[in-house]
Amino acid sequence: MLSRCLCLLALVALSSACDTWPNSTETKVTWWQCSSGPVMVTNVNPTDKKGTYEYPIRLTEPLLIATTINDPKSTYSSPGLKQTIKVWSWNPNTCGWTSVPTFGLLNNIDACSNGVPCPIKPGNNQIVNLELDFSDTPAIINLLKNDKPYQLEYLLHDDVTKEDLCVIFQARALTHS
Ligand SMILES: *[C@@H]1O[C@H](CO)[C@@H](O)[C@H](O)[C@H]1NC(C)=O
């Protein structure tokens, strides 16, 4: 009797373990900060280039990640501020995120000439529009299936202050028009 119960439990666990849309990404963006300050992120909102809320996000054209931050003290600018973006796709078979190769194209590049409105200055409650543009990296976008959940890590590292600002977000994305 006990073993039959356990078996049933295991089956239930298996069948419910994997969501097609992890973390409710079907309808909304999920995000969290992956750095510990000094800059703190209080909100993340995906928009189109005109600033209108957009969901699912469309990676076929440039979009903005409207990020609300509190920056207590530092000014960040070129050439110190570097950007690294990592991408994962959702694997419903393993219920996990699989890393998508970015071929070094998005690795430690000059942030200020790649979508970050520089300089970022001290101040509370500022909205920084981080531009995300995969339309000029077909090598990456061509690997991404249309209308699936994706996870992105957006890391800004400042070589001058050695400070990091990092946000992970998960979103439903359209990758083909
Ligand atoms: C869902 O979001 C939480 C943070 O809100 C995160 O810790 C967790 O790893 C996410 N789950 C998946 C499957 O990515």
UniProtKB/TrEMBL annotation:
PROSITE patterns: PROKAR_LIPOPROTEIN. Residues 1-17 form the signal peptide. The keyword Signal applies. Keywords: Signal. It comes from the Eukaryota. InterPro entries: Ig_E-set (IPR014756). The keyword Signal applies. This is MD-2-related lipid-recognition domain-containing protein. The lineage of its organism: Eukaryota, Metazoa, Ecdysozoa, Nematoda, Chromadorea.
